[in-house]
Automatic annotation (TrEMBL):
Organism, scientific name: Paenibacillus montaniterrae
UniProt keyword Cytoplasm present: yes
InterPro entries: KH_dom-like_a/b, KH_sf_prok-type, KhpA
Keyword RNA-binding recorded: yes
Name of the protein this chain belongs to: RNA-binding protein KhpA
CDD domains hit by this protein: KH-II_YlqC-like
Length: 76
């Protein structure tokens, strides 16, 4: 899942070398914290959050086999 988020994020930004994903797990969910270059935050979020919502939809669809909830958190 972490690799999927990295591939999507690196394709969207101007500074792909600054894309980082940190994974945290607890008993009911897995949280992926996505951080990018400060000038690329708007490109990851998109107009009215459409890009971020689409990324979360893709990640949630890929994680349907696991019983855990998957959260993608965009760090600014």
């Amino acid at each position: 899942m972490k690799e999927l988020i990295l591939v999507i994020a690196k394709a969207l930004v101007d500074h792909p070398e600054d894309v980082r994903v940190h994974e945290r797990e607890d008993e009911r969910s897995t949280i992926y914290e996505l951080s990018v270059h400060p000038s690329d935050v708007g490109k990851i979020i998109g107009k009215q959050g459409r890009i971020a919502k689409a990324m979360r939809t893709v990640v949630n669809s890929a994680a349907t086999k696991s019983n855990k909830r998957v959260i993608v958190d965009i760090q600014s």
